[in-house]
Amino acid sequence: MDILQKIERVFSTVSDIDRANAANIMLQLSPTFQDVEKHLSTPQDLEYGRNVLFKNERVEVLLVFLPPFSKTLVHDHGFSSGWIYVVEGSVLNLLYRKGNDGVSYERSEYYPKGELFSVEGDTTHAMYNPTFSATVTLHIYSPPLGTGKVYKPHE
């Protein structure tokens, strides 16, 4: 079964997604690089590629492709919570602290292939691929993204 069909099947039966059932959902999807490879978007205006695979009123599923040594913008997710599964490669989740004059780097968390981590709406972060190999991550957001903000960190 194609990954898009799996995603549609899983989310046709899931009424709500939260931290408790995110791992079970990823287990049902069991995404591999071969499953998602044809859905990867190469970077255009950003350092990374991004492709929305599924979206309804409750959830948004997207695929992120991070070439070697690339990163996302520093951002939050507004009112959405997210669960990120490392399909291929590894990622550093760079966490930032919000202040009156912007954001500043706080710490990083390392996640290898096969790991699942979460970001709450108020989490300010960027994802960085620290390796010579590509990184691919599958993201589930609930509710769908829409009110997030992009930040410029202190130098």
Main features:
155 residues, alpha+beta, Jelly Rolls, five-stranded antiparallel β-sheet, three-stranded antiparallel β-sheet, 3 helices, 10 strands, 41% strand, globular
Give a verbal description of the structure.
17% of the residues lie in helices and 41% in strands. It has 155 residues and is an alpha+beta fold. The chain has a single domain (3-143), classed as Jelly Rolls (Sandwich). The strands form 3 sheets. The protein has a 5-stranded antiparallel β-sheet, covered by helices on one side. It has a 3-stranded antiparallel β-sheet with strand order 6-5-8, with no helix packed on it. The chain has a two-stranded antiparallel ribbon with strand order 3-10. Strand 1 and strand 2 form a beta hairpin. It is globular, with a radius of gyration of 15 Å. The N and C termini lie far apart (46 Å). One of its GO terms (molecular function) is cysteine dioxygenase activity.
